[in-house]
Amino acid sequence: MPCHHSALRISDNCLETPVPHRTLLTLGAPRTRHLDALTPHGFSRVIYHEWGVPNNPRVLVCVHGLSRSGRDFDVIGEAMAATHRVLAVDLPGRGASDWLADPADYVFPTYLGALTALIARSDASDIAWVGTSLGGLLGMVLAAQPETPITRLVVNDVGPVIEPESLARIGNYVGQAPTFADYATIAAYVREISAPFGPLSDAQWDHLVRTSVGQHPDGRWGMLYDPGIAVPFRAAPAPPDLWPIWDAIACPTLVLRGGDSDLLSAATATAMGERGPKPRVITFKGVGHAPMLLGQDQVGPVCQFLRAVS
Prior knowledge:
310 residues; alpha/beta; Rossmann fold; 8-stranded mixed beta sheet; 30% helix; globular
């Protein structure tokens, strides 16, 4: 089975993006594994990245935002590896996972099917979850189900109400699939569209770019996601009323919010803290959508919450 349905070259082993030498975060490469998940039009190879002792029953699943990948959690993965087995997935159509034949399949049931397969593969009865944006919504849905395996939940800059201005902003770039002549130009583009991530160091930016771009056979550079993910997003960008989902969550929960987020409003975050799982809400000043969990100021509180004993 091919590593990817795109024309992008991730490298000979289909797992790393070749880029010019840069000063990058000092991080070890995770183990990279795969599973075959059933989608509406057949099986699709889903890549996930693993840290920690392979048979550790304490499992943390990390799920990224709409157009990102599991490598966004490299810092969390290393930070939590001493106590947990960390599994950070590339959702279908992102990172090194296969692209789907029908773009209409980039919907919640497909993602939830792949994530359920990942949970089953983990062989863990209790799962901790960190989800950014789309990954947070998926975690909310799973945590709200009867007999859920989700026992500790971190929701990063998303909630039951999605602000329309953020959907319009994301819709302006997601799925456009521009290509660039060189790595420096695409790196500048990623910084531009990702400016709401907040003040990151050059090394942090380089890490985010390195793990989210790839090269076409003609030498041009593009983003590592299927432009087709925008098809269902544009057809129905706003999810339905998710307050009943939120109110059904009972596990310990932590909510993260960028202080300047245009996706999760302060009012919605406050309401989240008062109902459902009644979580602690942490706001990071000077950050928009979404906190990228790369610095100690953001990673520290998450690790402390995940390691807490109920």
